[in-house]
């Protein structure tokens, strides 16, 4: 029976899981990652990634007690910029996806006539969360790093490179550089205008293909025998979608780890009216389009609330859930805008920040926690509305990720969405999806539907309370209008900060 190791790097931790082709998880190991946060800056250390990757892979292989491994695959956060020198070593901290320093560069690229053609081909608007603006920021503000860089990589590309020595990533991960699957190439004309060499970007492979083999030295480190293929799966949001078992139109997945990823499937090209609010990614092997997007914080909101209000609790999540359940729908008139790190899908506003609206003397931490919990549901409703603007109708949602461990939040999401909500048995759907794609690549399964039969199980189905749903729609309308009223104030806030602040302290966090 074939085995696959999945190296999964998220915002908070790096994990290694070993799967058998029947869906059984043989072993797993995880280590936390640290982030440096200061205003618009969000950074991690790629050297820490690799050091801990070796540790978790070694631990999981030893725990599984295996001597052979058919394949290793990597799934990691997308749109994070890794700059490598000619020795393959990082030249600077990694600019993470939620880093917003490249806002000006994103606006600069958006104004170029050469970008209009790229936008038409890829359907992808320009944003500071993407990679070309980040590379341009390095060119403008870290000239020596730019001059010494030989490879501009994503985390997927970096980890694949460390595993097999080939500078490569999959086609969906490459889209974050505005790679066009239809044309099969990067935007060469735009890259020339920006002064970015095509040679410095990763090669592109189809999902499920072998991109190399594990070298003898590394096999010796892990005491492995035989040939171990290195197989391209894709970045974490795509893998988690497949690991949720979505196989039909009308189904959607909500995977809430540090961020919330909300996506659905369509077999036709979507029609974005006006400025696109959601992504469309083509999974070529099945001619299926994955539609939706990721925000900046999902489960990360709960971590923030825990750090603020529950630091001294021995069992913080249990207390948070209990207290939030004791508070009325609508948190006694308190609404939370969850934009602590700005926002991606669907509002695409780097300047937005978090707000408690309606705070009164009577409110307690229970109400504030309830408002944060409910905001997690409003995030889903916002993404669902943006997807349905394209003509897709969502009828059911599958929940996974760490946030799905909190039953109250799962019920809130069902009530807010007004849909049947399936909570999956396996919360770690990113690794599950990556394993499924690797096994498909190895020829074990013919496609995603067949793989899902072995890998995906439903733990419970939550029916929405439609009376609560009607109440939440009223609250959601105020949630949306509060944001719209505040939108112009966010830029004024930035202007104020520029005038009054001194350098803010760098905060070291586990997101």
Stated plainly, the CATH topology of the domain at 3-234 is called Nucleotidyltransferase, domain 5
Major beta-sheet overview: 7 strands, mixed
- The average pLDDT score comes to 95
Shape: globular
Low-confidence stretches are none
Structural class: alpha+beta
Termini gap: 37 Å
CATH architecture identity of the domain at 3-234: 2-Layer Sandwich
Short description:
One of its GO terms (biological process) is carbohydrate metabolic process. With 511 residues, the chain is of the alpha+beta class.
Question: How would you characterize this protein structure?
Answer:
The protein has 511 residues and is of the alpha+beta class. It has a domain at 3-234: Nucleotidyltransferase, domain 5, CATH 3.30.420. It has 17 helices and 23 strands. The strands form six sheets. A seven-stranded mixed beta sheet has the order 16-17-15-14-20-21-22, with helices on both faces. It has a six-stranded mixed beta sheet with strand order 3-2-1-6-13-12, sandwiched between helices. A four-stranded antiparallel beta sheet has the order 8-5-4-23, with no helix packed on it. The chain is globular and about 65 Å long. Keywords: Kinase, Transferase. GO terms for molecular function: kinase activity; phosphotransferase activity, alcohol group as acceptor. Residues 257-440 form the Carbohydrate kinase FGGY C-terminal domain. This is Xylulokinase. InterPro entries: ATPase_NBD, Carb_kinase_FGGY, Carb_kinase_FGGY_CS, FGGY_C, FGGY_Carb_Kinase, FGGY_N.
